[in-house]
Design a protein that fits this description.
about 220 residues, alpha/beta, six-stranded mixed sheet, 8 helices, about 40% helix, about 20% strand
Length: about 220
Amino acid sequence: MPYELLLLEKDPPLATITLNRPDKRNALSDALRRELTAALNELEHDDAVSVAILTGAGTVFCAGFDRSEFTPDPDTFGDDSRWRSGQLMHEALQSFGKPLIGAINGPALGGGFDIATQCDVRIASEAAAFGHPEIKFGAPTLYTILSQIVGGAIARDLCLSGRRIDAHEAHRIGLVTAVVPADRLTDETTAYARTVAEAPLDALKAVKAAIVRETPFRVP
């Protein structure tokens, strides 16, 4: 299908999804959330693709949900129909049956931090940063997935405080696998993805199935 707010490029056995709203810091509008869900579903059923890469256009990976569309209200969180596309997007990310590699090119904040954690592996640019500022606006954060990556104590700190960490702290706590210069991010991530893609697709799917089973997901 044609996409307006993201780029989907296939170079089998790899595919790259690029969030493409750089003027809006790749904020996850309702339309972009729906397109990301559709792109993941397309790749899920394309046997020519073994590994997918997720990144952002411009200098930001993703600034989170597009707050211009709504303001989270802790009393009605999850009731607004506009949250439905967010739930579907998170479910598609969490259940994606192939390895998903995050090329974190810049800040990944709020919902952008969430989708970064839903990648299987994250490689970060030196310009990357991570944080959950949405807790200050009354929006709950995805604790469980983050805790499985960095451990409960650190996840509690990040989810409750909303503090922002840079790429090097993210590497120190195990959130990202590597930190590379910005101009090397695409090449380094692609090289890593090709290493993963050397395994047969059936084997990769089997490992992903185990990962999905061990990573329960629910919208807060």
